[in-house]
Each structure stands twice: as structure tokens, then as C-alpha cells.
């Protein structure tokens, strides 16, 4: 008898897209605010972005229950770090922690597709991109989620990422100014909302720079 | 004489020869490509003077929008229109086919087509194909016997109703109809109610979106209102535009001049287009 497969899945996909772009002295992290299941919208006003540390922000799409659990776990670990080291975790440190946390559940994964963005210890923008089980890479820009197949090729075209295999190792951060990068993100989400049914409603943009963290919202298509 | 066999014309209908192979492939993980479906909200209602049909304009292939402004209200006869939900190819093909059949029937009888004729032609075709032709239709029109509105399901069953909705957004639209519909609506009220119902589908159902199309049919007159409402605009247009400096690299250029072997005769009749 062929093995019987479960007719219940512990996972669900709540849709949505996230993007992060690293600049010379800033980092832009953005995600839409639509939470959906199947063909229904659960809410138009859900934040997929979480501040993990002063200069470190994570945006996650996928199964939001797992994302919430992951955010809680990382928040708790960060608090312990602060007590033990008397300082905030840097973005590269948080990046490694996230990778290890995801791989810890290698055989019952967090259904969470993450991009981590922030400033490193020198104040330069950095973006880390992940798969569901913790494989990660430092990149100049990335997108995850249902609209990523629509967004990524356009970012590749506009931000011209050099191949990570080239030596000497080239700087991946974009030479664009902060406002140009934010404009690019808005355009990219406007386009993704046109063609991806799971992306839309509102766009939440978080910008981290030397001055701190600022948040911006713009309306997207609601259909 | 050559011994090759003459190709017989296909017998018509569907060939199910590849079904077993497809099943085997699916088991091994090679799934067939998704069809273009019209995720869809389609509605119809009967008002004082006739029938109003409404539809959204989004066509999806999986979770991607493949057409942002497609036409889902199909012409069947001068006094009959049909909205289609389900697989786009199926709705197009079946409405096209019955449209032609109705026209031939009009020539044969010399009379205006009746809605029940279209209904019977559609339902018998769909029943014959046992639900494999995935077309869910809202058929409406005004003929000598008065205004009519019907829904037709993919397996061939039909309902005759004063107001109807079909498609993935049908629940959202029906919620509006059930709250606000009453008999004897005026044309204004009917149009507004249909727009509200379609908008409910557009904004609350992810399979429906973009614009509202309407068709108002009354005795001896019809109005096809394409894009009656356009409630969804592009969210953001960059003021400075984008440049695309990356050009395709030319790695190798090789030009082989061809020898002319054919003599071109200048005089002679031009080929018919």
C-alpha cells in the first residue's frame, strides 16, 4: 500500500513581498501590509517588519505565525545578549544568529522567507538574504515573498550587482542616494501589486541611517 | 504511389489519450502548467425594464495577473449577453460556439433569439462534457417573453434567478445583493447595485480585480459599458523615470554572404494577398 499522505498541513502561506536595499550610509527595508490566506484578505494593515536591534531590522514573508514565533525568539536572544555584553547586537551578528535559529529547526522549518537589513559597525548599509532553513548571504539588495520573482529581475537590472565570485571582492552596496533608493522601492512595489494578487494594500518603508530609524507608508492597489 | 497512410480528420470532442501519462508524470512531480483562469466576480440582476450584467476584468494564471483588463461579458445575440467565469479558454470557446449557433438559428427561423434557447444550447454542451469544460456562466437577456437571468454551472445544471453571482468573488458580491436587492429597481439603482457588488468582489477577493464592466439590456436596446468604473490606479509612478544602460554583450559576429541561386523574374502577376 502506497504511503498515506497527510490531508492536513501545519503550514499556510499568508503572502506578501519584502525588499531590502543597502546604501553607502543607509539601508531601506520595505514590505507590503497585506495578510491573506487562499483567495481571501485577512487584513490590509499587517506589519511584516520587525526591529530586532537598534541598527537591525528584519522583514519576513511566508507563514506569519512562524514569523511571529521567530521574531519573539530573536527578541528574547537579543535581550540576553544585551544583558551579557552590555551592548546592542550588530547587524552581522544578528544575521548569524538568525541563520543558526533557522537551521536549528531544519526538520520542521519556520516557513519564513527573510531579509535582514541594517547598518554594520562602520555605519555602512548591509542586507542579508535567507531561505527558510537558514542559508544566508550578504548582498547589496534582495527581495523575498510572492512578488520576489517579479521584483528581483528589475532590481538586478537597476542596481547592477557585481558577481560575488569576482576577485577582488567588490562592494555590493548601491551608489544611489537614499531618496532615489526609496523611490525605486515604491516603483517596484507599485509594479508588483499590478501583477501579483498577494501584494498590495499598503507599503511600509523603514529607512535606517546614522540619524536613526524612520518609517514611511504609501498606499498600494487594494484589489 | 507512396505508401504513406492518409491522415484521417480528428473525430471531434476531446482526446483523453494522454490522461494516464499525465497522472504518472504528476505522481513523479512534473505538474502540468496552470491554466489561465478568470479568478472573477460576475453578477446579473433583473430590474424594472430588463437585465443588467456586470463583471470584473482580471485574468489570473496561478497567483500572477496575466490580463489586467480582459472582457468577461460575451456577446451572444443582439439581445443576449453572457458573463463567463472559470477557465478563460472554455468560456470563450463555449460562448463563441453558441453565438454562432444562435445566429444560424435566427437565419433559419427569422425571429429574435430567446434566452432559453441560448440556455439549452449551453447546458446541453456542458453536460455532454461532464464538467470537463470548466465554464461557469451568468446568462442574461430580454426577448419577446420578457427579461431573463440564468446561471449555468460547469456540469450543466442551471438556475433561473432574479439576481445571481458566480466566480471566486461570488460570495462577496452575493453579500451585497442579499442586503440591498429588491424588486422593481430603476436603471440608476440597478447599475449602482451591480457596481457595488462587483467592487465587493474586486476589493475582497484576490482572484478578482481591476475594473468594472457593465451591460444593460432592455427591450429593443442594449448598452455595453466597457470599463464603467476604473477604481484601481497604479500606486506610484516615478517622476524621473528609469534608464536601462545594460546592453546585451556581443560576443561574436559572423557574417556569411549567401549565394543567389534563384533567378527573380521581374515581370509577372503580383501574388494575391
Automatic annotation (TrEMBL), chain A:
GO terms for biological process: proteolysis involved in protein catabolic process. It comes from the Eukaryota. GO terms for cellular component: cytoplasm; nucleus; proteasome core complex. It is found in: Cytoplasm; Nucleus. Keywords: Cytoplasm, Nucleus, Proteasome. PROSITE patterns: PROTEASOME_BETA_1, PROTEASOME_BETA_2. Component of the proteasome, a multicatalytic proteinase complex which is characterized by its ability to cleave peptides with Arg, Phe, Tyr, Leu, and Glu adjacent to the leaving group at neutral or slightly basic pH. The proteasome has an ATP-dependent proteolytic activity. Component of the 20S core complex of the 26S proteasome. The 26S proteasome is composed of a core protease (CP), known as the 20S proteasome, capped at one or both ends by the 19S regulatory particle (RP/PA700). The 20S proteasome core is composed of 28 subunits that are arranged in four stacked rings, resulting in a barrel-shaped structure. The two end rings are each formed by seven alpha subunits, and the two central rings are each formed by seven beta subunits. The catalytic chamber with the active sites is on the inside of the barrel. Component of the proteasome complex. Belongs to the peptidase T1B family. This is Proteasome subunit beta.
From TrEMBL, chain B:
Keywords: Cytoplasm, Hydrolase, Nucleus, Protease, Proteasome, Threonine protease. GO terms for molecular function: threonine-type endopeptidase activity. It is found in: Cytoplasm; Nucleus. Its main location: cytoplasm. It catalyses: Cleavage of peptide bonds with very broad specificity. One of its GO terms (cellular component) is nucleus. Belongs to the peptidase T1B family. Component of the 20S core complex of the 26S proteasome. The 26S proteasome is composed of a core protease (CP), known as the 20S proteasome, capped at one or both ends by the 19S regulatory particle (RP/PA700). The 20S proteasome core is composed of 28 subunits that are arranged in four stacked rings, resulting in a barrel-shaped structure. The two end rings are each formed by seven alpha subunits, and the two central rings are each formed by seven beta subunits. The catalytic chamber with the active sites is on the inside of the barrel. This is Proteasome subunit beta. It comes from Corchorus olitorius.
Amino acid at each position: 500500500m502506497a504511503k498515506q499522505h497527510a490531508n492536513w498541513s501545519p503550514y499556510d502561506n499568508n503572502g506578501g513581498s519584502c525588499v531590502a536595499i543597502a546604501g553607502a550610509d543607509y539601508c531601506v527595508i520595505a514590505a507590503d501590509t497585506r495578510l491573506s490566506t487562499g483567495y481571501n484578505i485577512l487584513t490590509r494593515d499587517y506589519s511584516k517588519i520587525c526591529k530586532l536591534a537598534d541598527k537591525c531590522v528584519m522583514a519576513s514573508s511566508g507563514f506569519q505565525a512562524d514569523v511571529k514565533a521567530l521574531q519573539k525568539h530573536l527578541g528574547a536572544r537579543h535581550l540576553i545578549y544585551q544583558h551579557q555584553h552590555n551592548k546592542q547586537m550588530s547587524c552581522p551578528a544578528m544575521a548569524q544568529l538568525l541563520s543558526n535559529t533557522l537551521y536549528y529547526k531544519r526538520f520542521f522549518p519556520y516557513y519564513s522567507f527573510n531579509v535582514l537589513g541594517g547598518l554594520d559597525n562602520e555605519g555602512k548599509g548591509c542586507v542579508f538574504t535567507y531561505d527558510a532553513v537558514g542559508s544566508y548571504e550578504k548582498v547589496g539588495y534582495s527581495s523575498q515573498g510572492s512578488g520576489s520573482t517579479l521584483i528581483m529581475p528589475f532590481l538586478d537590472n537597476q542596481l547592477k550587482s557585481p558577481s560575488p565570485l569576482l576577485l577582488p571582492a567588490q562592494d555590493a552596496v548601491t551608489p544611489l542616494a537614499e531618496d532615489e533608493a526609496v523611490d525605486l522601492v515604491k516603483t517596484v512595489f507599485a509594479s508588483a501589486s499590478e501583477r501579483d494578487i498577494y501584494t498590495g494594500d499598503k507599503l511600509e518603508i523603514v529607512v535606517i541611517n546614522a540619524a536613526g530609524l524612520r518609517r514611511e507608508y504609501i498606499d498600494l492597489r487594494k484589489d | 504511389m507512396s505508401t504513406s497512410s492518409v491522415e484521417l480528420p480528428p473525430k471531434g470532442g476531446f482526446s483523453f489519450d494522454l490522461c494516464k501519462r499525465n497522472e504518472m508524470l504528476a505522481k513523479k512531480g512534473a505538474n502540468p502548467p496552470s491554466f489561465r483562469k478568470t479568478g472573477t466576480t460576475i453578477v446579473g440582476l433583473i430590474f424594472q425594464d430588463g437585465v443588467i450584467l456586470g463583471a470584473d476584468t482580471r485574468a489570473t494564471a496561478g497567483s500572477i495577473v496575466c490580463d489586467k483588463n480582459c472582457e468577461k461579458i460575451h456577446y451572444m445575440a443582439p439581445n443576449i449577453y453572457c458573463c463567463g467565469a472559470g477557465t478563460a479558454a472554455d468560456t470563450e470557446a463555449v460562448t463563441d460556439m453558441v453565438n454562432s449557433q444562435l445566429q444560424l438559428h435566427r437565419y433559419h427561423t427569422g425571429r429574435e433569439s430567446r434566452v432559453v434557447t441560448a440556455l439549452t444550447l449551453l447546458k446541453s454542451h456542458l453536460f455532454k462534457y461532464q464538467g470537463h469544460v470548466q465554464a461557469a456562466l451568468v446568462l442574461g437577456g430580454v426577448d419577446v417573453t420578457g427579461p431573463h437571468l440564468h446561471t449555468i454551472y460547469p456540469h450543466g445544471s442551471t438556475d433561473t434567478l432574479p439576481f445571481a453571482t458566480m466566480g471566486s468573488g461570488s460570495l462577496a458580491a452575493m453579500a451585497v445583493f442579499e442586503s440591498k436587492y429588491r424588486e422593481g429597481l430603476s436603471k440608476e439603482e440597478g447599475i449602482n447595485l451591480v457596481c457595488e457588488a462587483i467592487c465587493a468582489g474586486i476589493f475582497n477577493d484576490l482572484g478578482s480585480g481591476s475594473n468594472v464592466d457593465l451591460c444593460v439590456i432592455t427591450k429593443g436596446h442594449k448598452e455595453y459599458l466597457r470599463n464603467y468604473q476604473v477604481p484601481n490606479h497604479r500606486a506610484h509612478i516615478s517622476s524621473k523615470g528609469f534608464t536601462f544602460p545594460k546592453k546585451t554583450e556581443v560576443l561574436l559576429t559572423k557574417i556569411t554572404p549567401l549565394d543567389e541561386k534563384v533567378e527573380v523574374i521581374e515581370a509577372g502577376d503580383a501574388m494575391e494577398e
